[in-house]
Design goal:
The complex is a heterodimer.
Chain A (H helix, E strand, L loop, with lengths): L4 E12 L2 E12 L3 E5 L6 H9 L6 E6 L2 E2 L10 E4 L11 H11 L4 H14 L15 H13 L5 E5 L7 H18 L2 E6 L2 H7 L2 E6 L2 E6 L1 H6 L4 H6 L4 E10 L3 E6 L2 E6 L9 E6 L5 E4 L10 E10 L3 E8 L4 E7 L14 E5 L6 E2 L1
Parallel strand pairs in A: 3-8, 3-9, 6-7, 7-8
Antiparallel strand pairs in A: 1-2, 1-4, 4-5, 9-10, 11-12, 11-14, 12-13, 14-20, 15-19, 16-17, 16-19, 17-18
Helix pairs in contact in A: 2-3, 2-4, 3-4
Chain B lengths: L1 H32 L3 E2 L5 E2 L5 H6 L2 H33 L3 H12 L6 H12 L4 H9 L12 H26 L2 H9 L4 H12 L1 H17 L2 H7 L6 H10 L4 H29 L4 H4 L1
Antiparallel strand pairs in B: 1-2
Classes of the chains: A alpha+beta, B mainly alpha.
Chain lengths: 361, 287
């Protein structure tokens, strides 16, 4: 990632009437990466995509591609292609003509067009459907045609606007793998827009979490999931439990947080001062549950009782109400060595977590 | 459910009665007359003959047909060229302006088109409004010869039939998914190529619908060429009118009507077949 970025957004602002869709946004996109713009609807992620594609022009700021500003360059002159959310296949053209459209516009020879279209169709595994019309294909097949129509032009950057949102769950998972495979095979830079955090985490090299026209955090999926930098990212990506606390002791690199009168040792990565009110964030799978009678020694823990047990096959989800009033969501993996650990509604338990697994904000 | 089907029966039934009384029966009379013998008294005598049809396929009537079709076709093309940009513009403006423009377009329908044609005469005649205006500006030295020209005929026909072209075109342009235009641009198409590869083929149903709705009336609107063109060349409409009102040859007028109806029917059939080919089932919304 030390290479120069292929696309660079510099303090880009875009307003629609009174609404600021993109707010002074900086973003570097690197050659060959799979970057996902993740956020709730209306966060400006699609606008960023449309700005790069050229369908919108920024009110302020600059968009640079390969060192040259794209401002004033029409979409048809940019070396990027888009896979649209609704696919936007041309209904009056055959699959072949849909995919060949970009090549025809660039006035390639007929034989070259046939060769390239056939290759693109084989990449998306749709050989043999050339002469069909879009309405004769299933949603998943239309999705593949939309991909083929874009990649056949060998763009430097491929923009994907929620391409999987119209597909059902199974097909979506299948297409996630397909997209990863195509990305690896072609080596093209992918900029992918989605509101689905699972999709983002499973596919991306980097994720930019967006909210209200700004990027809240950008990083690898594990950085986003394990080390959210603010409450928005923490709550938007995955389930998370939040405990209100206060720092009562500072040590070298660590601190002690008081939560409901119990003292927990935590890492102090952000150098919070003593006495500061903080939030301690824990993923459901990072919390340990101990039955009351097994609790040994003086390890700090929060007492509560099990409200609900949800069997998920690979895991068991527990909803626990703490004596202090909070509701905590915990995911337990089955432990082969402890088959006798069976949770039931109403059991008294304690929860705590291994030092360092928490996030303090 | 009982009540609903009762209402449906009344609604469908009354419409059927209306059509039978005022369309089907008169038309059957026309068809019957076309096979009868003209009577010197001005009506018909009940003797079966095919003379009218023999007369119809004479060179004179073929020239009338040719003239009519040429006029209707060029009117259709002119109307299409005038309507398409306007319909396209209608889809690109704000809702309130669009509604106002459509209202302005429809208001003239509240007046009889015959009266509107007389209004055109007032505009176009030698000492009419257009000439007076141009003279007062000093752009011309003597009145232009506007009335009783081919130009006046086209002006009248295009003016009268323009809304019938605009509305179907607007309907099909409105349905056009703008994301398809974006997709085409994204794939490197310039504006002219987007128009010819995407917009034009996808609005073809609207073009065909509008053309049919202009072409067919243009064949029969005899009074506009009569009033504005000064009866220079005989058209089908005038021919039929003359057979009934001037020549007193009702069977010949009837057979010309039957031929005209058959031609129109063929055109409509062609329109339905081609539109079904273009867009399965979508056409019903356009009409």
């Amino acid at each position: 990632m030390e290479k120069d970025p292929i696309v660079r957004l510099r303090r880009v602002t875009k307003r629609f009437d009174d609404v600021v869709a993109v707010d002074s946004l900086d973003l570097d996109i690197y050659q060959g990466e799979f970057l996902t713009l993740l956020g709730p609807s209306g966060c400006g992620k699609t606008t960023v995509l449309r700005l790069i594609a050229g369908f919108e022009s920024p009110d302020k700021g600059d968009i640079v591609m390969n060192g040259t500003s794209l401002i004033g360059t029409a979409p048809n002159k940019r070396n990027v292609n888009t896979v649209f959310q609704s696919y936007a296949l041309f209904p009056h053209m055959s699959i072949f003509d849909n995919i060949a459209f970009g090549l025809k516009m660039k006035r390639f020879e007929k034989s070259v067009i046939t060769e390239k279209v056939t290759e693109a169709l084989s990449i998306v595994k749709l050989g043999g459907l050339e002469m069909r019309k879009p309405h004769q294909l299933s949603g998943g097949q239309q999705q593949r045609v939309a991909m083929a129509r874009a990649i056949v032009n060998k763009p430097q950057v491929l923009l994907l606007d929620e391409p999987l949102s119209a597909l059902d769950y199974r097909l979506r998972q299948e297409m996630e793998l397909e997209l990863k495979r195509i990305h690896r095979k072609l080596g093209i830079t992918f900029v992918f827009v989605t509101h689905d955090q699972e999709e983002a985490i499973s596919m991306s090299d980097r994720i930019a979490v967006m909210n209200e026209g700004r990027i809240e955090q950008i990083g690898t999926p594990s950085q986003i999931y394990e080390e959210p930098q603010n409450m928005f990212v923490a709550k938007f990506v995955g389930e998370i439990n939040v405990f209100e606390g206060r720092i009562v002791e500072i040590h070298n690199g660590s601190a002690v947080v008081d939560i409901h009168g119990r003292h927990f040792k935590v890492q102090n990565r952000k150098d919070f001062a003593n006495g500061r009110a903080v939030k301690v964030l824990l993923r459901p799978e990072d919390i340990m549950v101990t039955k009351d009678e097994e609790l040994q020694g003086t390890a700090p823990a929060l007492a509560g009782k099990i409200e609900e047990v949800i069997y998920k096959g690979k895991t068991v989800d527990l909803i626990i109400s703490l004596d202090a009033g909070e509701t905590v969501f915990v995911t337990q993996f089955f432990n082969e060595d402890q088959e006798d650990v069976v949770y039931r509604h109403g059991h008294r338990i304690h929860i705590n977590w291994p030092y360092g697994w928490e996030v303090v904000l | 459910m009982e009540k609903k089907s009762g209402f449906r029966n009344v609604a469908v039934g009354s419409t059927l009665c209306w059509i039978t009384l005022f369309v089907v029966i008169p038309y059957l009379i026309v068809v019957a007359y076309s096979f009868l013998t003209p009577d010197p008294s001005g009506t018909v005598s009940w003797i079966f003959t095919l003379d009218s049809y023999r007369e119809i396929f004479s060179p004179v009537f073929l020239i009338v047909c040719k003239n009519s079709f040429a006029l209707a076709l060029s009117t259709t093309v002119l109307t299409l060229l005038a309507a398409y940009p306007f319909a396209f513009f209608l889809t690109r403006i704000s809702e309130s302006i669009r509604r106002t423009l459509i209202l302005i377009m429809i208001i003239p329908f509240w007046t009889s088109s015959l009266i509107r044609t007389y209004a055109l005469i007032i505009l176009l005649k030698a000492n009419g409004i257009v000439n007076t205006f141009l003279l007062s500006l000093g752009w011309i030295d003597e009145p232009l010869n506007l009335l009783y020209t081919q130009l006046a005929v086209f002006t009248g026909l295009v003016y009268t039939l323009l809304p019938f072209m605009i509305l179907p075109l607007y309907a099909s342009l409105q349905k056009l998914d703008t994301r398809l235009i974006e997709a085409a641009r994204d794939l490197g198409a310039t504006s002219p190529r987007i128009f010819f590869h995407i917009i034009l083929p996808l609005t073809l149903p609207g073009i065909i619908a509008g053309s049919t709705m202009v072409f067919l009336p243009a064949l029969g609107l005899f009074y506009i060429p009569d009033l504005l063109g000064g009866a220079r060349s005989m058209l089908i409409g005038n021919f039929i009118k003359d057979q009934f009102l001037v020549a007193g040859n009702w069977p010949l007028g009837s057979s010309a009507s039957v031929i005209l109806t058959l031609l129109m029917f063929l055109l409509i059939a062609w329109y339905f077949l081609s539109s079904r080919k273009i867009n399965q089932g979508d056409m019903r919304e356009v009409i």
